[in-house]
Amino acid sequence: MEFIAQNMAPIMFASLIIFLLIGYPVAFSLAANGLMFFFIGVLLSPYSGGSINLAWPLLHALPDNFYGSRVMSNDTLLAIPFFTFMGIVLERSGMAEDLLDTIGQLFGPIRGGLAYAVIFVGALLAATTGVVAASVIAMGLISLPIMLRYGYDRRVASGVIAASGTLAQIIPPSLVLIVLADQLGRSVGDMYAGALIPGLVLTGLYALYILIMSIVRPKSMPALPLEARTLGHGILSLLAALLVTVVISYAAYRYLAPAHGDNADILGASIGVIIIYIVAIADKRLNFNMMSRLAQQVIIVLIPPLALIFLVLGTIFLGIATPTEGGAMGSVGALIMAAAKGRLSLDVVKQALTSTTRLSSFVLFILIGARVFSLTFYGVNGHIWVEHLLTSLPGGEVGFLIGVNILVFLLAFFLDFFELAFIIVPLLAPAADKLGIDLIWFGVLLGVNMQTSFMHPPFGFALFYLRSVAARVPYLDRLTGKQIAPVTTGQIYWGAVPFVCIQVVMIGLTIAFPQMVMHYKGTTVDPGTIDYQVPETPGLGLSPLGSAPADGGTSPAAPAAPDLSQPPSFGETPPAKPAAPANDLSQPPSFN
Asked: What are residue 7's phi and psi, to 5 degrees?
């Protein structure tokens, strides 16, 4: 009994892992585990030697945990339904289809162009939808048949689609970053700012892999044939339009700078983009033929999602809106974009609301179960056990980071990112804070690591999403009439392996170059470099602080203290004050 009581924390944690491996729902595994060990802990408390601090009245704290600032009244978590709704509406609006078709035409003439288009569109969808399922399914339905039609290797095609869809987990406005910020007790805006550069670097690594593969195995990703380039040529026209936009933006900036100061650059860029967008629409509808068809389509398709990204992320980074407010504006913007395309209907709104409610309920139930588990786990000093276990790892801070990332990477084979964020992160954060690790950096590092949970065979959700839309049997291509072989599950799994390795490399880069994340703090000033200079005051003979007189002599004597009984003098000699007559105390006082 004493052994069990004094080792309640590791036994409780091992029991939770067994519950999860059996397949019991996560939220109920957490809650049931917490309540069961609460009862056991109260009974074994006398045998624990003071290591168990549980009593029946402690259960009264659960309602406050549920309805307090941690769950139901948590404004941070309110951003989750907003961003989810925004992403689903955008996915229903056909934005992904337009982007993939247009960017595929833009990159089509080069080898691996469709793969580059998938990566670029995946990053754009990540910055607008933030939902992995929507991104993977949309790109799998649209791009995979085209890539197979023109001879792409099935492993490369499936791997790049699944990996690009998972960018939604690290590029803001990611849902997992919201949860990580909440669990770490940090600002969502800071977490978004810190994750932006690692997300872009990871996107660049994906593109670099495609570049290397196009050189090493050119037949695995051929360029689009001429008959498939329906928008024709027009790169020079697009570059000319970009140059005109830059010139207009710079002129607007110079005109607005005296009146608007620091905001003039943003306003100038907005004016340039709006003007070129209006010109492209007018050119297409009125047949002025100032631009090529390719330039028209790229401008018309790209600017709305980029404007939505600025509406959401730009306002958050500039401090104009909170993440919750940014999510609300993004939801309104998504509805406007869907309506502009003529694809906003009552059914679309119902489907978006249903999916949003389902995901939000899923998150809240896991969070409630996590609060029950943590109440008991903290009562048996589990947080102290985890902290001692992690801080005693060899290698100090680096050893801790390597050990934690290996642990999260292995757990990601069996748990998804929400489960990792609610179960593991609250146990790791105190140890990281005690070692002096910046929690925003730590959170972004864990976010990059948790991204691998979507790509791990055999339980990667992105692989399941792609499997659900990829062809299982041979089919006839509707355009060429040729028979296309199906995509096997093994090809999807093997295609994911190189991108999992790239994500592991990104974890190492984030550890090796923390400034990629730490830039969110802005420029720091070292107090030791500040030079304090006190100007000399005429007439007082004072030297600058901490310095001797210039002639090397002694400092002049300080002037006599002023006579505070007299009014201040401003350079004029005050009139002499008449002496007051002496009072005759032998007579009674007079009041006249």
From this structure: -125, 35
